[in-house]
Structure formats: structure tokens, C-alpha cells
Amino acid sequence: MTLRIERISGRRMNRIRLSGEFRAGHIDQVKAELTSAGPPVVLDLAEVGLVDVDCVRFLNKCEAEGISMLHTSPYIKEWMLRERTARDENHGVIDPH
Questions:
Q1: Class (C level, CATH) for 3-85
Q2: pLDDT digit string (tens) for 62-83?
Q3: 54, 85, 93, 95: which could form a disulfide with 24 (CB 3.0–4.6 Å)?
Q4: What is the b/e burial string over 35-58, where b = at least 16 CB atoms within 10 angstroms of the residue's CB?
């Protein structure tokens, strides 16, 4: 399955709806859509069935930059939280290996 990206323009915000499998290879496409949609923009993840770790990190970065998420599945939310927690725990720690 591939990723479908749909832009829904409204008076108050633009929504980018993703459907299917969101993989690392799709991140540049999603970035381009977010940029061209302009703020305020939200990502609608209601129809995303599968993500990989790079996409979870990308979604965390989007949230940190003020992009809201709509309809995020519980497993994606949990994974995003675990990635943020792991990053925060390792922040500033230099691995000697």
C-alpha cells in the first residue's frame, strides 16, 4: 500500500490528510505539502495504518514546530511519546562507544 496525500483548504486552516502507509520515503512529499499549504496547517492521520520510526520522529518534529495532529491512532501517539521520552533521556548524554 502507498501513501495518499490530500490537501483540504479551509477558511481558518489547511488540513493535510494522509491515508495508507507512511514511510520514510514519503517524508519529503509531506514536507512539501506542509510548506505549500502554509500556516495554520494540521496533519490528519485518521487513515494512516502504518508508520516507521523515521515518520514518528518527523511527526514529533512537526508537533514541536506547532503543527497539530488530528485523529492520531493510539499506537502512533504512544510511539511518539516513547520516542520523545527516549530523546529527552538521552539529551546531552554522549555515548562513549
A1: alpha beta
A2: 999 999 999 999 999 999 999 9
A3: 54
A4: eebeeebbbbbeebeebbeebbbb
